[in-house]
From TrEMBL:
Domain Aspartate/ornithine carbamoyltransferase Asp/Orn-binding span(s) in chain numbering: 145-296
Organism name: Methanothrix soehngenii (strain ATCC 5969 / DSM 3671 / JCM 10134 / NBRC 103675 / OCM 69 / GP-6) (Methanosaeta concilii)
Annotated binding of L-ornithine, by residue: N157, D217, S221, M222
Substrates-to-products reaction catalysed: carbamoyl phosphate + L-ornithine = L-citrulline + phosphate + H(+)
Subcellular location, principal: cytoplasm
Name the record gives this protein: Ornithine carbamoyltransferase
Lineage of source species: Archaea, Methanobacteriati, Methanobacteriota, Stenosarchaea group, Methanomicrobia
Length: 304
């Protein structure tokens, strides 16, 4: 089994992974090592702080050996096919994570690898991030079912995965984006096929009203740098600030997957304030990574 899209998981799978992540969090330093004697290849075409460190530490604490592989260090950078890379790595390691520019790359890795492949970010989805977000929500609310989620900003890869997760877990999500920057039609269609009813609006206040969770991300993702000036102009009012938080429900929390551009998509007052769960969310990247790797590289592999 692979984790390419959050939709590869059932609601039961997601809740089980969150429970496992909570157990790893509670027993850090005292839990077992289900990856003892196993290695993880970590392919990085894009730089990272949270993804690299959380995966490396998670694999090591589970008893595994993480191998950081930048694109320049692999023969991929000299023209070797993705399929051949996947086949070769499968002879050496017990799992592959990939943080890539194109979603097609991680799809090809999964198609040709004989070990689990985990999408650590593509231009289409970011399932590991959303699992951490869901763990953070579960730490603050009694149940995920029925939560009101307000996404403020770019309909990007993180937004895509959150929309799909909302459908799977029966959460209600409203996405507020400038015209032309909303989530992809294919994602909305897939979410509806999963039983969800995502809403897309233009006004941030409409998405924030009564929400339990407000979520945002950078206005200029990696790969969008050429559009930076235009994006900064268009997204100016799509900011999680105190005024927007005041429109949300009692006990509402704010999330941001980081890195944050303070003063743009989120203010210091919110990010450093009592309703922020941004740094809990960042920590949970490690715990949910442990849960995913223990499941796919440990339990699932042992079933074969």
């Amino acid at each position: 089994m692979n984790l390419i899209s959050i939709a590869d998981l059932s609601g039961e799978d997601i809740l089980r992974l969150i429970q496992s992540a909570e157990a790893f969090r509670a027993r850090r330093g005292r839990h077992g090592q289900p990856l003892e004697g196993k290695s993880l290849a970590m392919i990085f075409e894009k730089p990272s702080t949270r993804t690299r460190v959380s995966l490396e530490v998670a694999a090591w604490e589970l008893g595994g050996h993480p191998l950081y592989l930048s694109a320049n260090e692999l023969q991929l950078g000299r023209g070797e096919t993705i399929a051949d890379t996947a086949r070769v790595l499968s002879r050496y390691v017990h799992g592959i994570t990939a943080r890539v520019h194109s979603h097609g790359t991680v799809l090809q890795l999964a198609e040709h690898a004989s070990v689990p492949v985990i999408n650590a970010l593509s231009d289409w989805e970011h399932p590991l991030q959303i699992l951490a977000d869901l763990q953070t929500m579960s730490q603050n609310f009694q149940a995920l079912d029925g939560l009101q989620i307000g996404w403020i900003g770019d309909g990007n890869n993180v937004c895509n995965s959150l929309i799909l997760a909302s459908a799977i877990l029966r959460m209600e999500i409203t996405v507020a984006s400038p015209p032309g920057y909303g989530p992809k039609a294919e994602i909305l269609e897939e979410a509806r096929a999963l039983g969800g009813s995502p809403r897309v609006v233009e006004e941030p206040e409409e998405a924030a009203g009564g929400a339990d969770v407000l979520v945002t991300d950078t206005w200029v993702s990696m790969g969008d740098e050429a559009e930076e000036a235009e994006r900064l102009r268009v997204f100016g009012r799509y900011q999680i600030n105190s005024q927007l938080m005041d429109l949300a429900g009692d006990g509402a929390i704010a999330l941001h997957c980081l890195p944050a551009h303070r003063g743009q998509e989120i203010t210091d007052e919110v990010m450093d304030g009592p309703r922020s769960r941004v740094f809990d969310e960042a920590e949970n990247r490690m715990h949910t990574s442990k849960a995913v790797m223990a499941w796919l590289m440990g339990e699932k592999q042992n079933e074969k």
